[in-house]
Amino acid sequence: MKLLVRNLSRSTTEQEIRILFSEHGSVTECNLVLDQATAKSKGFAFVEMPNEKEAAAALSALHESRVAKNKIRVKIAQS
């Protein structure tokens, strides 16, 4: 299941996101979206978790949780 993570702090790294979601299960892919001109975070990322139960657990546990002082939003990504 592919999840969209929004409202990330600009200082949050891809590795930090991967670790955060790995606490709830296996993460096969994690992509922090960067601005092409500045190479800085745009404040959102995509996380791929192969096990739907683990992905659902991560979604419910992390949606509206605080990460680096920001309240993140997690939802299922549209394909």
Task: Explain the overall architecture.
This protein is an alpha+beta fold. The protein contains two helices and six strands, in the order βαββαβββ. The strands form two sheets. Strands 2-3-1-6 form a four-stranded antiparallel β-sheet, with helices on one face. Strands 4-5 form a two-stranded antiparallel ribbon. Strand 4 (66-67) and strand 5 (70-71) form a beta hairpin. The longest helix is centred in the last third of the chain and has 11 residues, at 52-62. The termini are close together. The relative contact order is 0.34. The model has no long low-confidence stretch (mean pLDDT 96).
Number of strands: 6
Taking the sheet with the most strands, its summary is: 4 strands, antiparallel
Task: Report how far apart the termini are.
Answer: 10 Å
General form: globular
Amount of helix: 25-40%
Using the CA coordinates, give the radius of gyration: 12 Å
Seen as an oligomer or otherwise, the chain set is single chain
Supply the helix-strand structural class: alpha+beta
Helix and strand pattern = EHEEHEEE
Strand order of the largest sheet: 2-3-1-6
**CATH homologous superfamily identity:** RRM (RNA recognition motif) domain
Under the CATH scheme, the architecture is 2-Layer Sandwich
CATH class: Alpha Beta
Number of domains: 1
Percent of residues in β-strands: 25-35%
Secondary structure tally, helices: 2
Low-confidence stretches: none
If you average the pLDDT, what whole number results? 96
CATH topology-level fold name = Alpha-Beta Plaits
Pfam family, one: RRM_1
Protein name: RRM domain-containing protein
